[in-house]
Amino acid sequence: xxxxxxxxxxxxxxxxxxxxxxxxxxxxxxxxxxxxxxxxxxxxxxxxxxxxxxxxxxxxxxxxxxxxxxxxxxxxxxxxxxxxxxxxxxxxxxxxxxxxxxxxxxxxxxxxxxxxxxxxxxxxxxxxxxxxxxxxxxxxxxxxxxxxxxxxxxxxxxxxxxxxxxxxxxxxxxxxxxxxxxxxxxxxxxxxxxxxxxxxxxxxxxxxxxxxxxxxxxxxxxxxxxxxxxxxxxxxxxxxxxxx
Length: 244
Hints:
- The chain is of the alpha/beta class.
- The chain has helices at 34-46, 96-109, 141-145, 161-171, 190-204, 211-215, 217-235; strands at residues 2-4, 8-12, 22-26, 49-56, 64-66, 69-71, 74-79, 82-87, 114-118, 121-122, 132-136, 176-183.
- The strands form 2 sheets. Strands 1, 2, 3, 4, 7, 8, 9, 10, 11 and 12 form a 10-stranded mixed beta sheet that branches. Strands 5-6 form a two-stranded antiparallel ribbon.
- Strand 5 (64-66) and strand 6 (69-71) form a beta hairpin.
- Helix 1 packs across helix 5 and helix 2 (96-109) crosses helix 4.
- The radius of gyration is 17 Å and the shape is globular.
């Protein structure tokens, strides 16, 4: 099965039913790399089945050798009732909108129950002892209230592919929630990623431990630094933001 836009194609290599599933993703960002680290750890910890890949016209020129085969920049994994999009690198800047809209459209059309997105919020905005904040579509607002955390301040905003996905979900009246743990700017922050994973574990039953995430912080930081340097060398530039 393939979902095709002008420059983005979703190839699901195995017939799967997604109705009622929960969609999870997060991207690289300058705020702690929280979304990327969280999804990376979920994939590593659960060892889910790879069910698909995403092809783009401006596909980043990277592949990795993992588990006896090639790992591609954008892959879909499934574990029980959870489906994870793992973007190992950011989509090309010229394809951010089409990438995000195509994925979100697929989630809506396949009748997922909800989308949970993971980003990071600059720790300078922390007030008191709160661990994270939330952004939700109108359709996701009632469920977001159950997480028991404050929403993002009105004067702040979400940036990048997550923002575009949220926009599509809002237009589609689809329940989507973004978890924004407070994170350090400019360096990988596994503790922030652990906060988001703990929410997924406690509220949605995703069976992922976070102890090793903290223990492997140096290894994670080195891996991310290598990936980002490769991407910057090949694609050039980067994007700044306070939250993503």
